[in-house]
Amino acid sequence: MKGASMPVYEFRCEACGPFDAHHAMAQVPRSQNCPACGADARRVFSAVGLSRANSARARVIDDAARTADAPDVVRSLPRQPGAPGAAPAVTRDPRHAKLPRP
Description:
The protein is α+β, with helices and mostly antiparallel strands and 102 residues long. Helix content is 14%, strand content 20%. It has 1 helix and 4 strands, in the order ββββα. A hairpin with a 3-residue loop joins β1 and β2. It starts with 7 loop residues before the first strand and ends in a 33-residue tail after the last helix.
């Protein structure tokens, strides 16, 4: 498959240890010859990495994991609506005009 990335699968040779091999998902063998010694190596089932580092979702998950051990420090309270210096809340939704005002 030229130009397409294929998943990496882990195999383990009894003599040489683990090695990785690229295969199409529909054509993954249960065993493969070891590239070092040629012996039969069985496929190892392990967790897959489906996330891409540049996706927004991966960044959010990484940020959440980071803050579990070292949370961000809040130095001040957020500005309340109507407080001096706070931007007024403006909405353009016509349904909001029908809501009661405080």
